[in-house]
Predict the structure.
Amino acid sequence: MSQKGFRYDMNKCLECRACVVSCKDKNDLPVGVNFNSIEERERGKFPDVYVWFTLKMCRHCSKPACVEKCPTGAMTKDDDTGMVYVKEDVCIGCGMCAKACPYGAVQIRDDKKKAAKCDGCLELQRRGELPVCVASCTSRCLTYVDVDELKKEDGLVRAVNDDVSPNLTEPNLYYKPKKGMKA
Amino acid sequence: MRACARGHAQRQQVAGPDRLKYPMKRTHWEHGGGDKSLRGRDTWERISWDEALDIVASEIKISKEKYGPKSIFLMDENFNNQGGEIFRVLGLYGGYMSKYGSRSRGAWRQAMKPILGYDRKYHNQNDRLDLVKAKLILLWGSNPAWNSYPSAMNNLIRAKEAGAKIIAIDPMYTTTASVIADEYIPIRPATDTPLLLAMAYVMLKEDSPEKPMIDWDFLNRCTVGFDSEHMPEGADPKMNFKDYVLGNLDGLPKTPEWASKICGTPVDTIYRLAREVGLTKPVTALFAWNSARADKATHVCLAQMTLAAMTGNMGIPGGAFSCSCQERSTEGGPALVAPGSTGVTAIKNPIPNSERMCANEHWRAILTGKYTAGQGAKKDLDCHIIYHAHSNIVSQTANTMESIEAHRKVDFVVTHQFLLNSCAMFSDVVLPITTPWERDGMVLGGAREVMIWTQKVIDPLFEAKDDGWIALELGKRLGLDPKEVEPVSLKQQNFNMLAGAKVAKPDNSGMETLLTITAEDIKAMGVEGEPQKGRITLSELREAGSYQVPRKMDDAFYYVNNKAFREDPEKNPLKTRDGKLQIYCGELAEMVTKAGWNEGKPIAIYEPSVEGYEATFSDFEKGIKGKYPLQVCSVHVPRGAHGNVSNSLWLREAFPIPLLMNPADAEPRGLKEDDTVKVFNDHGTVVRRLHVTERVMPGVVMLGEGSWVQLNEDGYDIGGCPNVLTGTFPSGPDIESFVSIAEVAKYDKPSLPDALWPQRIIF
Ligand code: SF4
Ligand code: SF4
Ligand code: SF4
């Protein structure tokens, strides 16, 4: 199995949310269902403020808790890319995955009573295209690469803000922390 | 080139459930207006196209015959680039009342002509690739990360990587600042002139041969009005900039201490900034238009040009003081690629330009029946029809509440729209039009290096029609010649623009034809034309969607503005009164005075806005706050392009537009994060959720613009339209002021997040 990952440079993110809205468009998501989001945080006092933005999405973990806890086998890890996705026809909407994921990356959709999450735009990838959020990132701070490359790069981390230890699920979203940010 | 979030939300604009599907009429409208107070809250009835067009044509006819053509106020914002179709119809039918004035560009548009000799968006900017040569870049009220990303941001990031220091000056610690600025300097809204004057004061006081800050050579050779020695002919030598700044004119030196009290920038910061700008060479200062979108803001234009001249940052690599906005954000220089003409000659409005009213008071003019027509002159206005072909000016112009009143006064309001935006909402008849996705494409220029050709994506939805078709149908009913109404079809106009498109030759020795067009292309497009040879084929352009001129550092297109002028001002004069840069600008002062609202001043002085910072006090000198102690600053946010795509639920969810307030203002008012609050003043009240943040300057609240006004049962706007809070404070030459003050308090009615509002679905 090969594993792909996302690299997100927090120094360059503009909180423009092209990644967020293009994902909603591609997946036709109603208000309230989001596969990714940009969180804004600040510290300090005016005018000495420090602001940083954080992309949140499924980490497509190497040890995905969601897959482990899924009783039906609906939550699946793709062999070719390592992307974790839901087989909707098998999903019973029990919510075990959502409970298990330490990143809040799974929602149970009210309308469908099924688990819903980022699938890494797998069908696009299978056609040789990039995930939509990556292809639409206006500052090109979000990229999609082989995880082996990311492992080699200095200065990347897999936990920022109040993320759990990466040892838990071995996430594959690598952050380049913003300069001056307390990682 | 990548699309922004708004681009990705287009589908919700084109094909959402709130798309206007059929022509419709306000239930209680009847000839004469019916119950006019119901505008904006009446129900709608579906009508046929025939009925709709008959009503519009007959209302136009009656109004013209009874009250004359000036009784029809036409706003046609030309969204199609080739639009303006209703200008033609009404122009051919006897005329219409139109407006003049610079909405977006504030004082810049008119003022830069007499000061610097030109009126253009890129103002005084150098080439975008020149930014890397700047040692210091000031972003003055400029936040491209929110309003002109990503190319402007990429240009700035490159400059930063090349070693430029970037300082952001703004009432808010902006996203742009957080991504690229080395330093952030606070300033209160509409107090740019005091800060600029104080910087000039420090430079005048501290300039010395050992530490030269002032470029005397440039001032002496290229400008007039800086000191009594260099005055233009006929001017009073006492009225020079230097003496004003030093206090010799009015006994008030424009010290950092003086300025700080007004603009809120700490005194030591002003000294530091002035020294840094004075001692660093070269400096590029990029101003957003916002700084001069305040009453009497011609002084901002004068002051920033004066500072540019003092520091010699003009006509040199890396040195420029300029506006930087829209498609020309960070990008100066003549266009390297541009579409040809549409082949359509505009129809002249039979009502002469001298009869037009200014956008800075048009709502009041409709309400009072009088408008300003020059110094001491008022003209009568008897407006019976408001015609909106593409506009959203109920929300997007100053004093929305007055605008609503004006809409509720006239006999008839008609709007062309594809969504129930603010103008459509306050109309009697709404004509559903196609979106760009359903039209025969558009050819867009404007940016220096890019030309765009959009394609038709889908057939018109429901009963939507092109504006051109509406124009023809109205023309038929008004007895106009269709050949004059639409002399060239939209398709043919596009073709003409493509065929006439020019691109700069690689050595920049002139322009050449951009497109190769074959006989087959012409046949396939169904247009008339001749085959031609150019740089790329039509299908290449169609495939790519745009053409971008390739660039590299120091190529032939590298551009430094006013280089020749700087080198030899006698041989290469500016198009100003005496060919020099006008620090004393008599022509501007005359323009302002002649316009009829206020007395113009020839040099940059500080004149506070009517509802500026000083107005937040009942006694400014004693520091006693008044009943509206907060300044309101409306800002462009990534949710919409003004009111466009404002309906998209995805965008509303991604960008909620709360009221931004500093904890120092929230705490004493007992306000917390996510409280529902009302922002109010004498003009109106806006209801918003609150975001308490250290990013905003204490004493200032910020509100994103673009939301459609939506009045609730208390008469409050729950839509979040900042112009509900702006008043009518016209000033010359044609400035519309967006400056306002307010108080904020808790509102006890619950409010839903914008993304959960019911959509404006009619049928
Ligand atoms: S982030 Fe959560 S949902 Fe995604 S793979 Fe890891 S455990 Fe599963
Ligand atoms: S990979 Fe695809 S599904 Fe996942 S967040 Fe990006 S766009 Fe959305
Ligand atoms: S598209 Fe890129 S720059 Fe924009 S918010 Fe997303 S990650 Fe940040």
